[in-house]
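Q: What changes when FNR is included in the input?
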Amino acid sequence: MDYSNRILCGPMVRISSLPFRLLALEYGADIVFSEELIDYRLMQCVRVENNSLDTVDFVVPGEDRPMLQIHKTREKSRLVVQLGTADGQRALNAARLVENDVAGIDVNMGCPKKFSIQGGMGSALLNHPDKVKQILETLVNNLSIPVSCKIRCLPSLDATLSLVRTIATTGVHAITIHGRTRDERNSDECRETFIQSIVQQCPPNVVIVTNGGSTKISSYSDIQNFRLRCGPAHGVMICQAAMWNPSVFRPSGSLPISDVAKRFLQICLEFDNHLPNIKYVLQRMYGDLDSENQFYEKMLSTETEAQIYTLFDMKNEYEQSPLEERRLWREKLRNQF
Ligand code: FNR
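A: The predicted holo structure follows.
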């Protein structure tokens, strides 16, 4: 597994569940990331093979929905699980649980949210290079799969370069750089020139992946142009542009969002995705386009899966899917521990 010359569909909380990842792969993403999973939460999970769906499910005992669901054939060799962590040993314990079911482990060192920073995770790590080293070296030295991390820029190029050089000594395969600082929002300009300089000056043993370009991306060629402007960076990670329309990965052009939504809904039926996640993803797809629109309003007001499939003219597909079989599996999950 190598991130060079690859297009990555990056980690997004509540978006990057199995159906969304499979959709991104179908449309042409080379590698997909899970959402960030906090190490101590993941460690609570039990690994269960779900042979009827060909998935491996990681489930907290007593819960009937997996925290992480991995497809054994359609994504395993291209899936990276992202961890939120503040400690090398804890990260390793969590990573070991999924090590044989994924292609790589990534550490989130960029999240600016209060929850992460208070726990010493995410962007709190950016100012603690010793901690960064401890976490990454523990993972690199003890795992059999590639390790990467995702950072944000520091306020100066020199400080960012210094951090990248420190990280490169740990033996990680790749560093994704989101071209904004911890205090900058997605509406601020992505620091493409920072990333360009880092690509030119970083040690050759590490792959640099650029991230943060979505506000200027609505097609496959925009993805390539963003990568070129940043160095060219060795790899490119796309998040919001994929959330708005996952078919952005198609070299032959993006598809209308209604077609994409229907394909998403079909995959959700295969994997028993539940209503809150289905609605959340669809709202992000339609949000900016249609928030004034009646269709969007109708989507927001749906209260059952049957209603949402009816709204998308997919009532028959919904009724013909193995609803009872899936209900029994959920019951089994809930009761088996
Ligand atoms: C994110 N981002 C994020 N980053 C991360 O490292 N782990 C995560 O779980 C998440 N979750 C998340 C959820 C949602 C809804 C959004 C919009 C973003 C940040 C994301 O990975 C990325 O760094 C930024 O969105 C910038 O890249 P784009 O969107 O310009 O391609």
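Observations recorded in class: The chain has two domains: 7-249, 257-335.
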